[in-house]
Amino acid sequence: AAERPPAPPSNAAEKAAALEKKASSLVDVKAQANICVQKGQFAEAVQLYTTVLQNSSAGEDLTIACLNNRAQAFLRLSQFVRAEQDATAVLKKYNIGSEALSKSVLAEAAKKAYFRRAMARRSLGSLQGSIEDFHALLKLTGPEGKSKAIETELARAQQLLDEQRRSELRAKPR
């Protein structure tokens, strides 16, 4: 005989327990995606993060983490438009604010998102947007959070923009 699916929860306590179990399994899926990233299995990680993001019971903190992590995986897959979209989604949540998340949690997520979006934009040739994101990141991190990596990537984006402008000037008819 075929097994029947479990009956839907009948009372509030059972519904809460079912939601908690589902949320716990979503955290496990995210953890598995993180392991895939560590192993360089970026396509698999994207699929797992997407699974979590498609689930309406994922909390706001889990959603933000998965968007940020999926943006990184997309960067590693050279899917820059998708990386930019996920990072932008995180930044929208940061700019709107959240009742459920502290400002410090949102700020940490925004730092990652600005960096990832800046890298995606630079790879897409949106150099001015990349530079703006690096500056926003520097403003958010403050002097104590300033890093050589951020400054190096900002300088590279600025160099590319300068080269692009010089090339455009040379191409203009005189």
Specify the number of helices: 7
Low-confidence residue ranges:
none
Q: Which quaternary structure do these chains form? A: single chain
For the report, how would you describe the main beta sheet?
none
Radius of gyration: 20 Å
Residues in helix, %: over 70%
**How far apart lie the N and C ends?**
84 Å
Number of strands: 0
How large a portion of the residues is in β-strands, by DSSP E?
under 5%
Structural class: mainly alpha
Structure description:
The protein has 7 helices and no strands. The longest helix has 27 residues, at 12-38. By secondary structure, the chain is an all-alpha fold. The relative contact order is 0.08. The mean pLDDT is 86. The protein has helices at residues 12-38, 42-53, 60-76, 80-96, 103-124, 127-145, 148-171.
Keywords:
single chain; mainly alpha; 174 residues; 7 helices; 0% strand
Question: How would you summarize what this structure contains?
Answer:
With 174 residues, the protein is mainly alpha-helical.
What's the layout of helices and strands?
Blueprint: H1 12-38, H2 42-53, H3 60-76, H4 80-96, H5 103-124, H6 127-145, H7 148-171
Helix pairs in contact: 1-2, 1-3, 2-3, 3-4, 3-5, 4-5, 5-6, 6-7
